[in-house]
Design brief:
Elements (H helix, E strand, L loop, with lengths): L37 E2 L8 E8 L6 H18 L5 E2 L2 E9 L4 H13 L5 E3 L4 H14 L2 E4 L16 E3 L4 H12 L5 E7 L2 H16 L3 E8 L7 H10 L3 E4 L8 H6 L8 E6 L2 H4 L9 E4 L9 H14 L7 H17 L6 H8 L3 E4 L2 E5 L6 E2 L2 E7 L8 E8 L11
Parallel strand pairs: 2-4, 2-5, 5-6, 6-7, 8-9, 8-10, 10-11, 11-12
Antiparallel strand pairs: 1-4, 3-4, 12-16, 13-14, 14-15, 16-17
Helix pairs in contact: 1-9, 1-10, 2-3, 4-5
């Protein structure tokens, strides 16, 4: 496989949503002491596998980072059978807050690699943060498992051979979304945040929808930190599409203003991916909408997901959310690779093991595609329905979309 060298300084103002609140708000995960933001394991020198996890642990993407952190800690516990070690080596996890700032992500990743001497990097919550860090994985020759950042370019134009992604990418979302609404002669407007997550999401959706015969009549982008989308949505109304497809992440979602402007009453149907539970609480105006889901805890039916749901409810008194299974999947992938390498964390050996490697996750079987190291995985075609005892629209399964059905194009 070719090795590509990139010097990439990615500076954008990307305010999205995730994680917890610095050192005071970091969760205890999977039986590990995280009071100082790290999962500790005391072990003899040379007997430790160290994993550095980058996440937005403060700021706009705080909830996503929190989900990733909980899922990762639970995943290490699940994959090691509760021993928190692999092949006799203890696992130590060090969490660092990127603050959803690419320049901070680079500083924290460099600290993990140079000061903490981690064997793996994992992260991050933001595509901007992740893209800024990718070259460091290659420079230091360390495996980086990307979770949950979705920009296509991560496993596309900015890919290097040390990058493996358990998170889905924008094209996988797009293929699932297009299957729900696109068809010959259907007119679609898109609405997304004005940064890499939104650009890649719309571009991928447009490609998939046009293949099915749809026409994209408007691509509208908004400041990701904005709270007033009136002018953006008026452009959508003026374009008179059959559907408005929304790509969004974060608490400052446009759903209330979509309802206030009575867009659906103007004959424009709304479609989107079912987001995290916090965002679902603002989507009551969209009950009956058909779209897609990356994950909702009742959708996958397998033993790994059952364990995750049961343990998460037991420990946190709530169900796992959108990005919790991704954190768990990243942890499982690392432990599985280490099992196959007999505990050897040498990245150049692990590349050969991980290319084409399949592993069981809360979403079923994932497989790292050899060509670009993107994990092929199931997605879900869903309808939002109101259910008794639940104060938000619930994603109900129409059908599971197979890993083969949503496999994105190879773009690296």
């Amino acid at each position: 496989m070719k090795r590509h060298w990139y010097w990439f300084l990615f500076v954008i103002v990307a305010v999205l949503l995730v994680a917890c609140n610095g050192e005071e708000a970091k969760d205890e995960g999977a039986g590990a002491d995280t009071s100082d933001g790290e999962t500790k394991a005391v072990t003899a020198e040379g007997g430790t596998i160290k994993i550095g996890v980058l996440a937005s642990l403060t700021g706009a993407l705080e909830s996503y980072g929190k989900q990733t952190q909980r899922g990762f800690d639970l995943g290490i516990e699940y994959a090691t059978g509760g021993t928190m070690e692999v092949n006799g080596k203890k696992i130590e996890v060090v969490y660092e807050d990127t603050e959803t700032k690419p320049e901070v992500a680079v500083q924290k990743a460099t600290k993990l690699l140079e000061d903490d001497q981690v064997d793996f990097l994992v992260g991050s919550s933001s595509s901007g943060d992740t893209l800024a860090v990718l070259p460091l994985a290659e420079e230091y020759e360390k495996i980086m498992v990307v979770e949950p950042a979705v920009a296509d370019s991560i496993t596309g134009s900015e890919f290097n051979e040390y990058i493996f992604r358990t998170g889905r990418n924008s094209s996988q979302d797009a293929y699932a979304a297009a299957a729900a609404i696109a068809g010959e002669g259907v007119k679609i407007a898109t609405f997304a945040p004005d940064y890499s997550f939104g650009w890649d999401g719309v571009n991928a959706f447009k490609t998939a929808a046009e293949k099915l015969g749809a026409e994209i009549v408007l691509e509208e982008y908004a400041d990701p930190a904005a709270t007033d989308f009136t002018s953006n949505l008026q452009k959508v109304i003026d374009a008179k599409p059959d559907y408005l497809f929304v790509v969004w992440a974060g608490a400052n979602s446009p759903w209330n203003q979509i309802a206030d402007l009575k867009i659906q009453e103007k004959g424009i149907k709304i479609s989107t991916g079912a987001p995290d539970i916090i965002a679902l609480q603002f989507m009551n105006p969209l009950i009956g909408m058909e779209g897609f889901s990356v994950y909702y805890h009742t959708l996958p039916q397998n033993d790994v997901n059952k364990w995750l749901v049961d343990e998460h409810q037991k420990r946190f008194n709530e169900v796992p959310d959108l990005f919790t299974p991704g954190g768990m999947s990243a942890a499982i992938a690392i432990v599985e690779a280490l099992k196959q390498s007999d505990g050897d964390a040498d990245a150049n050996k692990l590349i050969d093991i991980m290319e084409g490697m399949s592993f069981e996750t809360p979403k079923g079987t994932m497989t790292f595609r050899e060509e670009d190291h993107q994990a092929l995985q199931s997605m879900y075609s869903i309808r939002l329905e109101q259910q008794d005892g639940v104060d938000y629209p619930v994603p109900v399964l129409i059908r599971e979309l197979s890993p083969e059905e949503t496999a994105p194009p190879v773009m690296n």
